[in-house]
Amino acid sequence: MNTNYDLDCLSDSCTLHQNLLIEENKESIEWEKFVKEIEEVVGYNFNNHNLLHQAFTHSSFHQEDKLCESYERLEYVGDSVLNLLIAKEHYFLHPDLLPGKLTRLRAANVDTEKLARVALKYDFHKYLRHKKPLLKAQVEEFKDATVEYPLHSTGLIDPPKVLADIVESLIGAIYIDSNFSMDSTWQVVEGLLQPLITPTNLETHPVTKFYEVCQKNGWSVELIDTWEETGEIEVFVDGKFAGKGKFSGKKLIALNRAAHNAYCEIVKNLNVETTAHNETQN
Prior knowledge:
Oligomer: single chain
Protein name: RNase III domain-containing protein
Order of helices and strands: HHHHHHHHHHEHEEH
Radius of gyration: 26 Å
Largest sheet: 3 strands, antiparallel
Strand order of the largest sheet: 1-2-3
Domain RNase III: 35-179
Number of strands: 3
Shape: globular
Strand content: 5-15%
Organism: Datura stramonium
Distance between the termini: 114 Å
Pfam families: Ribonuclease_3
Mean pLDDT: 88
Keywords: Hydrolase
Low-confidence stretches: 20-24, 274-282
Number of helices: 12
């Protein structure tokens, strides 16, 4: 009988067991810390902590952790609940607004950029379990871009969708955990979404603003699309270069930036022409 071999195996087994206990204890501490911090941020105590865990589990991580579903189903619920809550709030808060304006106002308060800003404000991305190596860089790029637009860029920057997804999944988790209470969910949502976009600071989309000023003055518009090659779109008004926009990530954002740039140049030129005209008259 090889006693030394048996003792070595026993020692290895004990070491492995100790390491597993240490790892489990570490995960337990981290889990308790995660729950406590999120509950403090949102001002809501979960009855079912597994819902909270699920709300912060991306599908890329779900493939490794078979015991916990990803947030996708909660996101689906949260998206619907959020739209209804905001619609209800605006309906009673702004009784004189027509449906078209109400729709625009709701969209501005629940779109990807708005919700991504909420996630960024509360560092929700730091709690997300995922296997997305590019997420950190995307979040930092988005964070830097928001500096120029404190409230909303109206389509001029590119928010990581996953940030908005976290907020919607969290809302879905609270709605389900609270036994489908719209009042309890709204108490959380109202705080998270501050500052809400109001009719006073609601921006018109840059493409809409651009075409409105051109139509008002009877100007023709031509877009030169070289986005596939250069990531740029150029705008010509009445045959003259008016502006351009560049964003290689998404063509729509390049278009928005081009319209925004052209609009700003047009307004600036109109002011110059008006000033010059007044000086001549004087």
